[in-house]
Every structure is written in structure tokens, then in C-alpha cells.
């Protein structure tokens, strides 16, 4: 998925140009953004405003499925595509004098064309039935106004949403940058290994969600464990001597070393309230990720598990590195 910053840039460009560009331009931009964020219902709903009537039913269906985050829901009767079509019909439905329900199926471009054509004919002296002409212009005006309102409201909601998401991404991005730098300097192969496994899981989840991927998930979790250990090696390298409480601090006992590291942080004269907050629950969360097992076997669940593992690994490692930096800064001041 595109980053929040990139999506926010697209949204703000669409909003800034909203009153200066033809409506169908803004609608196309909104369809693109909705598609990028996986908002199938609105992607299809607005795309219907752009689609001219007629054409191959099969081809029209294929185009709609291209905009669906989960094409398997197509034809279910209750999926987002059906919801979008129902909303489109409701917004464009009108009743004739003979109490017959009809739907205006013209695209926005066609409505604009016919409105311009009628203006030219009127200017040339062509006579029209005032009542029919007024009813047609009122219907078309209502369609355009509804579409404009929906598009603008969606863009505004996305601007707020991605503005918040961008803040969250910047916080997580700070942790990720610290961890990536440490790994790139010390064990760069770990980043490459995890990226390769993660891509395989993602591809499997997208193409064969029911396929057994226990081996790939096991590799992803193992790589997360190695990342955790690499960070502990950085803040408290293996020791030949055990801790004062008798716990081994050698290479194999990295959890003991993390516990010892947090203990030293607590006992340090540099301890402050921020350090207290960072230490609370750190060891327990580390162990929880470090002891994850590959209980999920099919691709869809395995991919979610890998996401959870990676997210928590980066957050925990980022906290450890930040805590280590705080201690170093305090020592320099002292």
C-alpha cells in the first residue's frame, strides 16, 4: 500500500484543484485514491460516474473488478460492488409523468456534452419544450451536485485520515530507521532475509490465501528472533561472567542479557521517569515476540502473523536502542 504521506499529497492536490478542474478530473483522482487505500465501495461508486452506458457486460465487470481490493466478493449480492451500484442507481433514479422509474445512465462527461449541446441549440433559436427541458436540467444538475458533494466529502475525510496516519508513520518510522541502521551496520543479511520471506508470504496471501506456508512463516519468525538478538548484542554484548544473580550472559542467553540490561538501566544514576516508562513491560513483550510460534499455516493468516511479528519486533528493538541512547547521553552529561 502507498505511504500515508504520498496519499496525503494526492488528496491535497485534488482538493487544491477541486474548484479549478472539471468535476470528472476530481472524480478520477478520487477513484485512484480510493483504489490505493482499498476503499472498494467508493472506488466503484465514483467510477460509475465516469463510465459511459452500454458496452460489453463482461468487459464492464472486469473493469469494476480491477478496482476491488477483494475481487472474490464480486457477484456475492452483498459485496461492496453491489452496494456501490445500488447507491449509484438510487442517486440517479427519477420518476416520469407516467410513474415509471428510470435511471439516468449518462457519464459526467456525457452530461456535460449534452448540456453544452442544448445551450448551443438554444442560442441558435431552436425551440424546446420548457417543462421537459427544465426537468432534464434539474436532474442533471442534481446528479452533478451529488457527485461533487460525495467526491469533496471523501477527499476531506481522507485528508484528515492520512494526516493522522502520517504522524503515526513518522513515529514508527523513527524506530524503524534506528533498527535498520543498526542491522545494516552489523548484520545486513537479516534485513535481506526478512524482506525476501515477507515478499513470499505477501505473494502467497494475494494469490493462494489457502496455501500452506508454515515453512515461510517459520523463516519470518526466526528472522525476527535474530533481529531481536542482534539488538541485544548491541546494547549488552555476550559476557563471559554470569550476572550477580547467577544468570548466564553468554551469546546463547540473549534474553538474560536483555533482563540484565534493563536491570542496569533501573539501577543507573541516570534513571529518570522516561526510562521508567520505557522499561515497564519491555522484557515481557520481548519474550512474547521472541517465543512466537508458527501456529498459522495458511497464507492469509500467516501473512497477518508475519506483520504482527515484524511490527512488534521493530517497536521493541526501537525502544531498546532508544533506552540505550538515553543511558549514553546521561553518562556523557555526568
TrEMBL record:
Taxonomic superkingdom: Bacteria
Name the record gives this protein: Uncharacterized protein
Lineage: Bacteria, Bacillati, Actinomycetota, Actinomycetes, Kitasatosporales
